[in-house]
Amino acid sequence: MTKISQRRALLLAAVVPALLIAGCSANTQAMKGAASPGTPTDMDSMSPGTASPSDTAGGSQAESAVQGYFNALKSGNLDQVVSSFADDAVVAVDGQATAEGSQAIRALFQKLQGSQDMKQATHTIDQSRTAGDQDAFVRSTSKQGDDDYRELFLLSKDGEEWKISQFMNNQAS
């Protein structure tokens, strides 16, 4: 396992359980047309050094990277969607096979691109945090047609740019 893969696995192990708990309590937030900063949640009480609030430069930049992904989806710009992801990213979209790597991600979003619901979707960024200076996560909710989705993005720095390294979504109950 590479150092990057180990770092991502540790980040997932530390973040996902807390996000699931926080996400369940935050599910009542109204959907908005454009992404906006989330409100503080139980994640604010994490131990020092584990994560930084979203008002830090890294959290805001990671949030901007996710907003760029959402904008690319809405505009139907497949190249921009794919460039939002790291070359070795993993994407797990509800109801689809997991896509690993740029070519598989391109094929997945090419398949999904024709959906009118995706182009008219609304997205709300509920929370963004940095984990050190190289990793961040963003939790969001989206409404596509009659369906509500929860999304979790793990991001890593690629030079000075934030790239999505893992993306997962599922339908909210």
UniProtKB/TrEMBL annotation:
Entry annotated with the keyword Oxidoreductase: no
Upper classification of the organism: Bacteria, Bacillati, Actinomycetota, Actinomycetes, Streptosporangiales
Record-linked InterPro entries: FrzH/put_lumazine-bd (IPR039437), NTF2-like_dom_sf (IPR032710)
Protein name: Nuclear transport factor 2 family protein
Chain segments carrying region Disordered: 30-63
Skewed-composition ranges (Polar residues): 38-63
Signal peptide: 1-26
Family annotation (SUPFAM superfamilies): NTF2-like (SSF54427)
Keywords, alphabetical: Signal
Residue ranges crossing the lipid bilayer per the database entry: none
Pfam families from the UniProt entry: Lumazine_bd_2
Gene3D superfamilies found in the cross-reference section: 3.10.450.50
